[in-house]
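Box S1 | Example of a co-folding query
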Amino acid sequence: MFKNFGVVLPVTLFLTILFVSPSYSQGKTIKDGVFTIEQVAAGQGVYETNCKVCHDLKFYRDTWKGWIDKPLLNFYYMIVAEMPADNPGSLLDAEYTNIVANVLLEMGFPAGESNLDPNDGMDEIIIVAP
Ligand code: HEC
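Box S1 (continued) | Returned holo structure for heme C
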């Protein structure tokens, strides 16, 4: 009878971890108000001057699929490294950050209380479908 304990206990522990852990791994997503309306307002003009000539809103709707489940920081880094396509890296970090806030609002995600900041937790904010 007791000789089975060596197996039953680890299996029980394993199942407990399996059932409990999903509630811990649910992180923050772009639906959680991860940027402010001030950042959106600041990003609008920068977007219109530097991005709009090549990308309208439909462009993001069409390409969003490819970003789902990725950290928002990846999206930010891609834009910093490659955009505007005719002059990559030409904007300030804050301008890129505000552009991302602007795109998120345009995509239908809510503004909130906390400032979006590439140096503070943006790697833990996950991109989801609108
Ligand atoms: C001169 C034209 C041009 C400008 C200006 C430009 N882009 Fe792009 N962008 C492109 C091209 C070309 C691609 C790659 C091909 C594609 O996906 O359509 C691209 C790709 C992207 C992608 C990747 C989409 C995906 O998921 O594949 C994002 C995001 C993006 N641009 C955002 C921006 C932002 C933000 C700005 C302003 C800072 C900007 N672009 C300015 C031409 C431009």
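The longest strand covers residues 28-29. The chain has a mean pLDDT of 88.
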